């Protein structure tokens, strides 16, 4: 069976990683998303943007995959699993998932904002979150930026192409932990539905996708995913 998982920030919530839009705890509750995750914001104050991503990079060292990540990784025994994630963390990979496509980039790779050269140099330590850190400079004079997709930027072509293929070839798509409002990623479950592929949503809250999917489970990912494949026949009828 071919299973394609479409995950968002809620997938990592039970690992202690804040989501973006959960009202009280969301990352956007504390910062202005446009100021901190856009190329304009980077141009205006790179030291603020760099500090924010460096903090999120280091925070990943203190969290671990949860039962939801581990369940998806275990599905490889018996199913052909592809993971399409909007998340920039590495928790799917650390749980053992292979075939993971990062639509919005990764907190673990960096590049020059001028020549595009990958940066593998040392990163300044960050014992606790600070408001500003000067980003390193490339030999060409450009600034080193995180390899993540900011608002208004193009998604990585290879990740997007593999994701569309993984959705189109799936026997079932499982959308977990995303508010399903940021396109083009939010268009992937719609593509599956348009092709007659059953879509299961896992989210403790309702989303704009909830009344269109085949089944919408009001459950958290760490609760719903461990037994989900066994539930598929009953869920899909
Ligand atoms: N299990 C499953 N879902 C959860 C859990 C959980 N334990 N906790 C929260 N959620 C759900 C919330 O109900 C919400 O619908 O996860 C979703 C998180 O939504 P967002 O914070 O909007 O995150 P996401 O959908 O991944 O954001 C998409 O927006 O800011 C950009 O690039 C950023 O990739 C991000 C994109």
What does this molecule look like?
With 237 residues, the chain is of the alpha/beta class. It has two domains: 141 residues, 3-Layer(aba) Sandwich (Rossmann fold), CATH 3.40.50; 79 residues, SIR2/SIRT2 'Small Domain', CATH 3.30.1600. Helix content is 31%, strand content 18%. It has ten helices and nine strands. The strands form two sheets. Strands 3-2-1-7-8-9 form a six-stranded parallel β-sheet, covered by helices on one side. Strand 2, helix 6 and strand 3 form a beta-alpha-beta unit. Helix 7 packs parallel to helix 8. The longest helix has 14 residues. The relative contact order is 0.19. The structure holds adenosine-5-diphosphoribose. Adenosine-5-diphosphoribose binds next to helix 1.
List keywords for this structure.
single chain, alpha/beta, Rossmann fold, SIR2/SIRT2 'Small Domain', 2 domains, 6-stranded parallel sheet, 10 helices, 9 strands, binds adenosine-5-diphosphoribose, zinc, zinc ion binding
CATH T-level fold name of the largest domain: Rossmann fold
Spans where pLDDT lies below 50 across 5 or more residues? none
Major sheet characteristics: 6 strands, parallel
Q: Which outline best applies?
A: elongated
CATH architecture of the largest domain: 3-Layer(aba) Sandwich
Mean pLDDT: 94
> What class would the helix/strand composition place it in?
alpha/beta
Order of helices and strands: EHHHHHEHEEEEHEHEEHH
Number of helix segments?
A: 10
Total strand count, please? 9
The CATH class of the largest domain turns out to be Alpha Beta
| Domain tally | 2
Q: Evaluate the radius of gyration.
A: 18 Å
GO molecular function: histone deacetylase activity, NAD-dependent; NAD+ binding; protein-malonyllysine demalonylase activity; protein-succinyllysine desuccinylase activity; zinc ion binding
Catalytic activity: N(6)-acetyl-L-lysyl-[protein] + NAD(+) + H2O = 2''-O-acetyl-ADP-D-ribose + nicotinamide + L-lysyl-[protein]; N(6)-succinyl-L-lysyl-[protein] + NAD(+) + H2O = 2''-O-succinyl-ADP-D-ribose + nicotinamide + L-lysyl-[protein]
Cofactor: Zn(2+)
EC number: 2.3.1.286
